[in-house]
């Protein structure tokens, strides 16, 4: 797999089963590239990607049940937090989510672009859990988050796990005792 | 589902046009056209209708270009494009942006045509035809520029290349629109065939965009 004509990784064979999987690796090891390929936002230079056992109609790069939340995916800076969440909920035909526990009540009417990095990350995670895809790809989800935010994040990931949904987390440090599937 | 997603995105794109300072391009266009409209009759310089029509459509072309490329390029540079790509099909993204751009340029062109009728002391009877030409022309312009903006933005090219890329493709539309507008300003019989040609090109580009963009996205 190449990124900007530089080989990121090769001979990688990995299988993700339902539940929580962790992709561990240092900076530049290709975690983000791997997740982008799985999400369909980037095409692999070689090799195959196979999805087995998902609901009918599931296909990567289609209107799919897969979503990548990463630092390279942003919400709209000019819109308020409420407008951004409503935009996602309207597009996915979902009700406005319960945001308690994310500690963002005082920021709902602020523009997304005016928030601190930690709050921006919270809003992106709220949107990701609202979309509730069969496969949720989280690229360094703990980035910029304080302890309270990380606790809420792990709660939400565990909740998805109990509901039988798949979550793949890419991170550069092990912050939970979850199953490390691949170390890049 | 697609229709409701289109409406949601259209509202978002119009909001962004207001909030993102993208109206500067349009405002610039209005100011230039207003200055020309006021200055020409006052200067008593004899200006042909074809010159006025050319000026109007060139100004509308550049202000439409400015906004069109920004609404597409901004999504890439502000990293919101990947969010949208994961939530809605590319054809819906394209349609909503093209519609937002076309609606805005139509509103401006209606203002411009009203000014023209006033300053050139045209008969009010030409107003409906002039409105029709300006609105249909604006949609054809917006649609054609939309697809080019999408390609320029997707190719991560610099926004400054946009008018250079767009002009040859839009030239047939522009020439047709200049001809029709000249006919209206001269109060001579209007060639509706030309208007149909302009609309046909807009429609063809629109359908091409809707059919082609999903394949473009698959080739990421």
Note the run of SSEs of chain A as H and E: EEEHEHHEHEE
Main beta sheet of chain A: 5 strands, parallel
Approximate shape of chain B: elongated
Ranges of chain B where pLDDT stays below 50 over 5 or more residues in a row are none
Multimerization state: heterodimer
Q: How would you describe the shape of chain A?
A: globular
Structural class of chain A: alpha/beta
Most residues in contact: chain pair: A-B, 27 and 24 residues
Residue stretches of chain A low in confidence (pLDDT < 50, at least 5 long) are 56-63
Span between N and C termini of chain A?
12 Å
Description:
The complex is a heterodimer of chains A (184) and B (220). Chain A is α/β, with parallel strands linked by helices and 184 residues long. Chain A is 28% helix and 15% strand. In chain A, helix 2 runs parallel beside helix 3 (117-131). In chain A, strands 4-5-6-3-7 form a five-stranded parallel β-sheet, sandwiched between helices. A two-stranded antiparallel ribbon of chain A has the order 1-2. In chain B, helix 3 (49-77) runs antiparallel to helix 5, helix 5 packs antiparallel against helix 6 (127-154) and helix 6 runs antiparallel to helix 7 (162-185). Chain B is an all-alpha fold. Chain B is elongated and about 55 Å long. Classes of the chains: A alpha/beta (184), B mainly alpha (220). Chain A binds chain B through residues 39-43, 61, 63-64, 66-68, 72-79, 83, 87-88, 90-93, 131, and chain B through 1, 4-5, 8-9, 12, 15-16, 19-20, 78-80, 82-83, 85-89, 217-220.
